[in-house]
Amino acid sequence: MNLLEIKNIRKSFEELEVLKDISLTVKKGQVLAIIGPSGSGKSTLLRCATLLERVDSGSIYYKGEPMVVNNRNGQAVYSEPAQLKKIRSYFGLVFQNFNLFPHFSVLRNITEAPIHVAGQRKEQALETALDLLRQMGLEDKAEAYPYQLSGGQQQRVSIARALALQPDVLFFDEPTSALDPELTGEILKVIRELAGKHMTMVIVTHEMDFAREVADHIIFMDGGVIVEQGKAFDLVNNPQQERTKLFLKRLGAE
């Protein structure tokens, strides 16, 4: 089953078109990595898929349900607010800069949305949060505040917060870009474990070795278009397009 289906989306900021007729699908249990140089449209694509930006045209479906479709004039029309609220429950998003509430404890950062957005009972939300903290190796940090944590610990809390709402698909936008190499390993280990549990994930990353190891499928974007896509190992080890070859060579992946 396609959890996510994106068809022919376009997005411009004033005169600059940053997404040019992008289409992709994500199946249940799939791990999709999106790679490409800065300014290629990767993060904008994630923001459009998660309602942080609105597309100009094209359609997006979650679990077969429309989030946005084209009208007769080829313009994007979004679903009603009640439907969008339902669709928001299907995905979680992990930001590159953590985006934790600084004045909330770790535990409250994780339980805030389940209680106040999803309407979970406080006891249930606390139980889920503590279980997630155990999985992240942070059970002793429940009452700590973000400023008391390392960057790697903050990002693990951010992942736990996203998982607390039990999303169908988890989006990561450069989850290790704000971390030094040692802390990067912590986060890649967590994502690797989630992949082992068949969590559906879409990951924007520059970590080529990690993408090759964990992702099923890789999309290479440049200039707002999908230049090449394919099975992860094949694309990294035997790219077909010159732009892909040049990008990977610059990263030292080949």
TrEMBL record:
PROSITE patterns in alphabetical order: ABC_TRANSPORTER_1 (PS00211), ABC_TRANSPORTER_2 (PS50893)
How does the entry describe its membrane topology? Peripheral membrane protein
What InterPro entries does this protein map onto? Answer: AAA+_ATPase, ABC_ATPase_HisP-typ, ABC_transporter-like_ATP-bd, ABC_transporter-like_CS, MetN_ABC_transporter-like, P-loop_NTPase
Identify the SUPFAM superfamilies for this entry.
P-loop containing nucleoside triphosphate hydrolases
Principal location listed in the UniProt entry: membrane
The cellular component terms of Gene Ontology attached to this UniProt record, alphabetical and capped at eight, are:
plasma membrane
Q: Which domain of life is it from?
A: Bacteria
- Report what the protein is called: ABC transporter related protein
Q: What is the annotated localization of this protein?
A: Cell membrane
Task: Say which family it is in.
Answer: Belongs to the ABC transporter superfamily.
Does the keyword section mention DNA repair?
Answer: no
